[in-house]
């Protein structure tokens, strides 16, 4: 009988400790998750055919290889203010460091030199916000 009481107390204690540890791990993982970073570009293309054939394949490849994700791309519309002057693109990155690593990479810089012949770039980066 005494053995049963000790075993039950030990089982309850171990279950409580396991619950606390699992809860702490879950909280730590959630606390470490940072919102992504977004790059928004307004690109005025002056030569669609050359831009699409020479620049885009190289740029897309470098973006994907460096962890970028396409969120939106296209002409876009103005809800107020001036209409976009060109194509709009929104890319998502895990962090500003990852975005900058892509932007400064030799692969992208080579593609960008080609792209500058056929387009004007206006790009910004912004931190995402945590949604609850």
Offer a few descriptive terms.
2 domains, alpha+beta, single chain, 23% strand, 4-stranded antiparallel beta sheet, 4 strands, Alpha-Beta Plaits
What does this molecule look like?
This protein is of the alpha+beta class and 132 residues long. It has 2 domains: 1-33; 37-127, Alpha-Beta Plaits, CATH 3.30.70.100. It contains 4 helices and 4 strands; from the N terminus they run αβαββααβ. A 4-stranded antiparallel β-sheet has the order 2-3-1-4. Helix 2 (48-65) runs antiparallel to helix 4 (106-115). The protein starts with a helix and ends in a 5-residue tail after the last strand. 12% of the residues are buried. The model has no long low-confidence stretch (mean pLDDT 86).
For the record, give the distance between the C-alpha atoms at the N and C termini, rounded to a whole number.
50 Å
Q: Which value, in Å, is the CA radius of gyration?
A: 25 Å
Largest beta sheet: strand ordering: 2-3-1-4
Q: Provide the number of structural domains.
A: 2
Average pLDDT figure: 86
Low-confidence stretches: none
């Amino acid at each position: 009988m005494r053995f049963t009481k000790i075993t039950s107390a030990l089982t309850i204690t171990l279950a409580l400790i396991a619950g606390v540890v699992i809860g702490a791990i879950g909280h730590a993982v959630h606390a470490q998750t940072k919102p992504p970073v977004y790059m928004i570009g307004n690109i005025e293309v002056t030569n669609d055919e050359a831009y699409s054939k020479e620049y885009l394949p190289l740029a897309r490849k470098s973006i994907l290889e460096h962890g970028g994700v396409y969120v939106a791309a296209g002409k876009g519309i103005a809800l107020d203010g001036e209409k976009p002057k060109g194509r709009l693109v929104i890319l998502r990155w895990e962090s500003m460091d990852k975005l900058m690593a892509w932007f400064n990479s030799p692969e992208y810089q080579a593609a960008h030199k080609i792209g500058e012949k056929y387009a004007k770039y206006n790009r910004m980066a912004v931190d995402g916000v945590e949604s609850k």
